[in-house]
Amino acid sequence: MSPRPAKALERSADNAVSPTPANGGGARSRTRGDAPQAILDRYLIERDRLGRAARFYRDHRATEPMFRDEGRKLTTTQSYPDAVADMLKIAQHRGWTEVRVSGDEGFRREAWIQARSLGVEVKGYMPRDRDRQAAGEPSLARSPSSRHLDERAQEDRLRAASVVVKRLIEDPAARTRLMERAVQRLHNQLDPGRMRDRDGSRDRRS
């Protein structure tokens, strides 16, 4: 009767890493036990009937493996960062340049962050801005490249406004006032927080 609970435990391993269908044809390997030697040496391993590494244990006291190798996917019931890292290293070793992650959100988040550091593309998780920061990637909200483009656009708009003002307004003082207002509006568009801070300080003074 003992094998049946073991099978039930294997079915409960919902957190998984697998090659995406798009990458499936290009995956170098889906063979169970095909892993870097450093990882095989790090764990206590239970093998299948063909002698292939199937279950990876942290130590002899563990009742549950850190993760399982099912060939076409790697599964785990846990979300330990070191286990996730080793699963992804196996995926990379097998040529899985794009993977799909499934399971609980904590596992998918950890897998996305660590996969990006290895250059592996990930499907199955929509990263938040702080996840991108943790992975060392620029924020999509205000990345350096987007800010650079905004500043270039600002300069172009100011030059165009200056030409129009010079053509239409002869009074130098009036020209200066209009250009100062134009500059202020563009600054506020680039950094809305500046306007909120200024309005907040104005309210506090009143």
Automatic annotation (TrEMBL):
Pfam families: LPD7 (PF18821). Residues 193-206 have a biased composition (Basic and acidic residues). Residues 41-133 form the Large polyvalent protein-associated domain. Residues 1-35, 124-154, 180-206 are annotated as: Disordered. It comes from the Bacteria. InterPro entries: LPD7. This is LPD7 domain-containing protein. It comes from Brevundimonas staleyi.
